[in-house]
Amino acid sequence: MKGRALWWEDGYGIYFNSLGIPWMQKYETDELPVANFVNGIDFSGFQPLNVTTSSGIWGGAIGNDHSILGWFRDSGSEPPDWNLQPTISKQSVLVTIPGSASKWKVDFYDTKDGTTVAGSASIRVVGNTVTIPLPDFHDDIAFKMSALGGAASTLAPVTGNTDAIAGTWIGTITNTASTFSTPIKLFVQGGCEPGIVCGTFSAAQIPCPGDLFLQTSSGADFLFIEQNAKGSPACKPGGYELLQLQADGTLSYECLASAPAPATSIAVLKRQ
Predict the structure, then answer these.
(1) Residues 20 and 106 occupy one common structural domain
(2) pLDDT digits (tens, 9 = 90+) for 53-105
(3) CB 50, CB 96: distance < 8 Å
(4) 62 and 108 share a domain?
(5) Residue 247 resides in a domain
(6) Beta strands in 125-250 (DSSP E)
(7) Neighbour tally for 66: CB within 10 Å
(8) What SS3 state is found at 262?
(9) Peptide bond into 194 cis (omega under 30)
(10) Strands of 129-133's sheet in order across
């Protein structure tokens, strides 16, 4: 919403006695967050991009094959009631990506100043789209995306849902250096397809429980992104959890810092 310039007021308000200079001074910093947000951006080759959003938000994105800007707001922020929600949660944006990069870095920005980074994530391209899980926000949120390149995605677009792994899973995760382990508990909803929050995660010794956003699935493989992690000040969203259903009914678990990347922690989970 802040991205909409006060074109009428700025251009003509000064000529009306009821507005004039006092009106201009009252709102003189309204567009500053947007100016901060786009400062230094090279808009060469930018074009509007096709986006699909979850039901709670509106917005748009522009960009080229190496840089993308997005700005999205609470869909309830409409006249005459301006029915803003206290917190917007579990929302996502599907963006059609120009160019051939298979992985993008996303930085989320606080729109109150246009400079504070509210979180980051590494997102894998599936087909020619990326699904971006938004962190919790109030009113509106913006993001900048930068192409990282990387190997082509090995996970195909949707071939099924989460019915096969629906339920509660428990086990013990161990880091790949074998210096740390902790019990873990996952809950996965049934019938979920990529693009929505499908479950939750928690680990006893890591006070960062949060939501699991399903980015993609292929056969028995499911790639989730950790979202809305809360608890310790060190909690950050954007980690990946790769779950693979095994023939014996167990669930292979790998925690990844980004995708694709080597696992940082592994586990074998059993259905509770």
Answers:
(1) no
(2) 988 899 999 999 999 999 999 998 888 888 888 988 888 899 999 988 888 88
(3) yes
(4) yes
(5) yes
(6) 129-133, 140-147, 167-175, 181-188, 197-203, 206-218, 221-227, 240-245
(7) 16
(8) coil
(9) no
(10) 51-53, 92-96, 129-133
